[in-house]
Each structure stands twice: as C-alpha cells, then as structure tokens.
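Q: Predict the assembly, please.
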Amino acid sequence: MTWSEYDAVLFDLDGVITPTAEVHMRAWAEMFNAFLGEYDAPGADTAPYTDSDYFAHVDGKPRYDGVRDFLRSRGIDATEDLVVELGDRKNDAFNEVLARDGVRPYPGSVLLIDHLQGLGLPLGVVSSSANAPAVLEAAGLADRFRTVVSGTVAHELGLPGKPAPDTFQHAAEVLGAEAGRSVVLEDAVSGVRAGAAGDFGLVVGVDRGAGAATLTEAGADVVVDDLADLVPGSAA
Ligand SMILES: O=P(O)(O)OC[C@H]1O[C@@H](O)[C@H](O)[C@@H](O)[C@@H]1O
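A: Predicted assembly structure:
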C-alpha cells in the first residue's frame, strides 16, 4: 500500500472503524422480526428477517432508505408513516445498546488511523448514520477526523445517501482532495458502490460479513479483513 499516492482517506464508520455494524444489525433484526410477526396483508412475504435481508437491503444505507427498501422487497406497502415508525423503533434499540455497552474500536483500524495521521494525511468519516458523532465520541476518536459527514449532515445538505457517491465526494472536497486521489474504506455493498460510482482513487472493501467476492463485484479494488493490513510493515 503506497499511501504517498493519495491526498485524503475517507472512512465509513460502522463496521470499518467500530464494530457497531453488528449492533445496527441486531437492532434491525429485533425490530423487523417483531413487526413481521404481527403483520398480515395479502401478497406480503412475512418470513423471518435474516442477515441476508440486512446485507441485501439495509446495510450501509440511510435509516429510512433501508426500511423502505426492505419493506418493498417483501411486497409490503412502505408508507412514509410506517417507514418512520419502524426506523425510529430501531434507533431506540440501537441507542439503548450504545448507552449500555459503549464502543471499543477495532484495534487494527486505530493502528491505521495512527499511521495515516503520522503521515499527515487528512482523514474524514462518511457514514449514513445520524448516530455517527455519538459513536465516534463513545469510541474516543472524535478528534481524529477533520470532517464527519453523517446522515444528519447529508440530510441538511440535501445529499443523496449511499449507494450514491455524493457524501464521499462532499467529504473529499471539504478535505481539499480530488476524488481520484482519495481512498474510500467501506464494509457495506452500498458504500463500496458509492466509492466505485464516484471514481475514487482506491476503494477498499473491508470484509466483515458481506463476503470478499460480493465486495469485489460491487466495485472494491482490494478487499481486506482488517485495516491493519493496510499499515506497511504491520504483522497483523
Ligand atoms: O444510525 P442510523 O442513522 O439509523 O443509520 C443507519 C445505518 O447506518 C450505517 O452506518 C450502518 O452501516 C447501517 O447498517 C445502518 O442501518
């Protein structure tokens, strides 16, 4: 990995810096399974919600986009009221776990952040989550990034969420870097697609369960299991 070829590094948060993708995943599963257990309408598929549903329809997307896309995949009428109600129910569950358990970042990710800061590269976080600032704070990493483009920031600026490339492009611009000289680090298919659609210099897929082949197919240039693999000379 030759970091001198790049001017900025853009990290997804949940599943890349912190293991919170799993917390999101569990909160979604609890909420959707409770909902499906009670829902009944002709033509709707109410079979239990699984991890495959998460990876195919929800992972990495802004909250309400994930709810909408999943409901549609089951032939369920995704009215705005229902979408907001379910998304907010899941958000309460997520925040309960965050407050109760706190967040410890992946050690390999902290190693890479330390290394890149040592090189003087500007770092940004680009997350679909409105909870990104709270998660970074809980992980003790809030002061490491020059910009945090969260779900809230994207909403305020009217930027479409992942898989559209706009939030990553905005972060690169804030850091004063060309997309072609910026690196995107992503664990979700929707996020890798966003990186590929934005013609970034390098899109790194971080395999936390989506699968290396799936991430490559979505447009990842390389796939790693641990960000420590991107630190030159690291034994990890
Ligand atoms: O925390 P919020 O605003 O509901 O954001 C939701 C999404 O945030 C992303 O960062 C996660 O990768 C998703 O899987 C999750 O569903």
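The beta strands are 8-11, 123-126, 147-149, 182-186, 202-206, 222-224. Residues 13-15, 21, 24, 58-60, 63, 66, 91, 127-131, 151, 188 surround 6-O-phosphono-beta-D-glucopyranose (CB under 6 Å).
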